[in-house]
């Protein structure tokens, strides 16, 4: 028993000495294993060591693949923070929903109220009674983060800011956002105006359905009015510093810190990043670039068809043409790993009718492509007609019948 006791004691002492004399690099590898669960990448199959080494200043962060909604990296993704002017992305989303539904037009005039004029901070110095088209007001929101324009738009579209905010919260509920509540349309500090990095990424993913929002948020400089001259500069420096950036919105208050919800597309692969609560100057930009730099080393976009490329042809009955081309409404493909030996197989399944009867409109949806990464469906892309096909004339129909008869006889 005494010998056994000495043996156990020797083993324990040996382990302790090993910890002391391990090289620093080895000790660091043990420490990396202690990374908190909320800072670990969700998808650790590609570059997991590099992902774990991403040290962000942000309190909360998310990197999302908008094609599938998959989270590629996260840190405190569901913790609630103040969005500041990132709030305005939802303001633009609700406005574009109303345009898409026919409830508003981008060219309709928006008149500034005295209340809207009173809002300071980031603004375009609207005067009560001053009128601009809805689209121009939305550009002021997107480029200059104009609080006065946000209130003017909200009042115009819903009758009051309060009614518009109710629409924003209804949209949040529709999108399934569990950690979001809006108290205003501009993002000036309010304890009841909060969201999470994950929820903001979901809003950004939805915003991608409206190319206009990316068009506005990617404008670097905009002349809002000529008399008196008012030139707006975009607050999102990623547009200057990081090629491929085309959205979305910065945000800052003392309580919120520096925030950024952004989107980048490179070689067909689009990603969304959200960073919140950064305290170092320009840290919301550098944190976002860290996420994108890491991601574009791990994944690429395997393209099967370009937007507008012919995917299939469909026979046409009773038409001036005997067949019509079905083209892709958007690029067809999927995100795949860049790491050798880990590349997934991407394939497309085409669903089209056996025949279409004329008349057929150009751009008419006639089918769908389902994109698979290995065995998992990751995207659905509409197939549209490439040209208009009118009904065949009586003469054409007679010729086709006669040709069919003679073909059968032969």
Automatic annotation (TrEMBL):
Entry's PANTHER family? D-ALANYL-D-ALANINE CARBOXYPEPTIDASE, TRAFFICKING PROTEIN PARTICLE COMPLEX SUBUNIT 12
Can you tell me which family this protein belongs to? Belongs to the peptidase S11 family.
- The Peptidase S11 D-Ala-D-Ala carboxypeptidase A C-terminal domain is annotated at 299-391
The record's section on InterPro entries has: Beta-lactam/transpept-like (IPR012338), Peniciliin-bd_prot_C_sf (IPR015956), Peptidase_S11 (IPR018044), Peptidase_S11_C (IPR012907), Peptidase_S11_C_sf (IPR037167), Peptidase_S11_N (IPR001967)
Record: residues binding substrate? 249
Q: What GO biological process terms are annotated to this protein in UniProt?
A: cell wall organization; peptidoglycan biosynthetic process; proteolysis; regulation of cell shape
Return the broad EC class.
hydrolase
The record lists the catalysed reaction(s) as: Preferential cleavage: (Ac)2-L-Lys-D-Ala-|-D-Ala. Also transpeptidation of peptidyl-alanyl moieties that are N-acyl substituents of D-alanine
Q: Which UniProt keywords apply?
A: Carboxypeptidase, Cell shape, Cell wall biogenesis/degradation, Hydrolase, Peptidoglycan synthesis, Protease, Signal
Under SUPFAM superfamilies, the record lists:
beta-lactamase/transpeptidase-like, Penicillin-binding protein associated domain
Q: Name one GO molecular function term.
A: serine-type D-Ala-D-Ala carboxypeptidase activity
Pathway assigned to this chain's UniProt record? Cell wall biogenesis; peptidoglycan biosynthesis
- The name this protein carries in UniProt is serine-type D-Ala-D-Ala carboxypeptidase
- Whose protein is this, by species? Neomoorella humiferrea
Function per UniProt: Removes C-terminal D-alanyl residues from sugar-peptide cell wall precursors.
Active site per UniProt: 85, 88, 145
State the signal peptide span: none
User: What Enzyme Commission number(s) does the record list for this chain?
Assistant: 3.4.16.4
